[in-house]
Amino acid sequence: MRKRILVVDNEEYIQEVTKICLETVAGWDVLTASSGLEGIQTAELEQPDAILLDVMMPDMDGIATFNRLRENPATQHIPVMFFTAKAQVSDYQYYEELGIKAAIAKPFEPMVLAKQVAQALGWNFVPC
């Protein structure tokens, strides 16, 4: 069964690059959302296998979005990884304490992204 990943990022370019990489390299289905609220609604409706969530977004940032996902019985089981331009050790430790599966630094290496996601989630990864 193909994995389904939800990418939540307010930058359309990041959504597009991520979608192309994950679909082409891993063969996964990729859903996108442009805000925290849209991401929560999409996660609830579509039940993806994992969520890649931008930390810094207007209106509702990644941490607030993550907290809302965890409070919702329909989405609390979905593993979440952060995309972040802030790549300090203290941030990674804080994210781990929150229950984030991994934090992937921006800019990310497009051809390695699927492998990073799979490793963080303990999925077998076979490139297409």
What does this structure look like?
- By secondary structure, the chain is an alpha/beta fold.
- It has one domain (4-119): 3-Layer(aba) Sandwich (Rossmann fold).
- 43% of the residues lie in helices and 19% in strands.
- The protein is built from 5 helices and 5 strands; from the N terminus they run E-H-E-H-E-H-E-H-E-H.
- A 5-stranded parallel sheet has the order 2-1-3-4-5, sandwiched between helices.
Taking pLDDT < 50 over at least 5 consecutive residues as the criterion, the unreliable ranges are none
**CATH architecture assignment name:** 3-Layer(aba) Sandwich
| CATH-derived topology | Rossmann fold
Number of strands: 5
What is the string of helix and strand elements?
EHEHEHEHEH
Keywords: Phosphoprotein
Pfam families: Response_reg
Protein name: Response regulator receiver domain protein
Domain Response regulatory: 4-121
Question: What secondary-structure arrangement, pairings included, does this model have?
Answer:
Layout: E1 4-8, H1 12-26, E2 29-33, H2 36-46, E3 50-54, H3 62-71, E4 80-84, H4 89-98, E5 102-105, H5 113-121
Parallel strand pairs: 1-2, 1-3, 3-4, 4-5
Keywords:
single chain, 128 residues, alpha/beta, Rossmann fold, five-stranded parallel beta sheet, 5 strands
